[in-house]
Design goal:
By secondary structure, the protein is an alpha+beta fold. Helices cover 37% and strands 13% of the residues. Strands 3, 4, 5, 6, 7 and 9 form a six-stranded mixed beta sheet that branches. The longest helix is centred in the first third of the chain and has 21 residues, at 4-24. The chain is globular, with a radius of gyration of 21 Å.
Length: 290
Amino acid sequence: MTHATPIRREARTSRLALALHLATMGLPVLPLRTGKGPVGNCRTCAANACGGRPNMRVPGTCACPRPCHAWAAATTDPNVLASPSWATAWRDAGVVGYHPGGAGVTVVDLDDDAAVAWAHATLPPTRIVATTRGEHWIYSATMRSVNAVRDGVDIKSTMSYARWLGPGTGTLAELPDVVRTLAEKKPTPVRPTPRTMTVPAPTGGVDCRHRTPAYLERGIAMAEQRITDAASGVHATVYRTFLAVLSAHGRCGCLTEAHIGRLFTAAQARGESPRHCEVAWSNAATALGM
């Protein structure tokens, strides 16, 4: 008999215990995958079967009649968190997340060293939590959540969620106007211009097979699903998916901005920033000599 089951049970218990502790502090919590995506806590949405985008009064693929994952499911109710219906979610979770807006705070998510340097030069001191790639600067008060307000900077507050990475250091400060102002400027998604290579024209008057709507649509749909279904290693999955799409469809000029936008949207729904999408796309094109 292996030790996998006891280990998984212990990990689930540890995550649930942390969630219950945070709930007593007034943080609405929820289970997240290791790759930061939300975990469904009902049978319909278990293992991401619903597509992973919850029915939260906004468009999405999840048809569950109640909010069962992502920010809308975050709660401070210990009876809900420890209920049997959430047991599978905690088993599949990699980390504990929380809803900043529900906790009355705003998280300025700084994704790299350049963004952190900008924050130190621009924002007033507050509570800071170290992340795997940068820092979370947490302020008191809420606002609307906006991604990519500048390079490497996302704002997470209402209708959003963040990973719990510890209490951080420093004293919680009031949300400054400079952060609110960032959200007033509608972010422009960063999308690369598809690079194409000149290839011989098809012979015999036969159209390029990529222009067959069903062929291209199937390829893009499968790529979107691959990104959405990634249980972990989202960065690597996004890169490999972009590589596959460019390898199959990138040399004849058939990919449009709409196709690329769909892939970027799927990646950003899993936590990737527009800048990371651009870098992954560019790296994939370079690897293929395009």
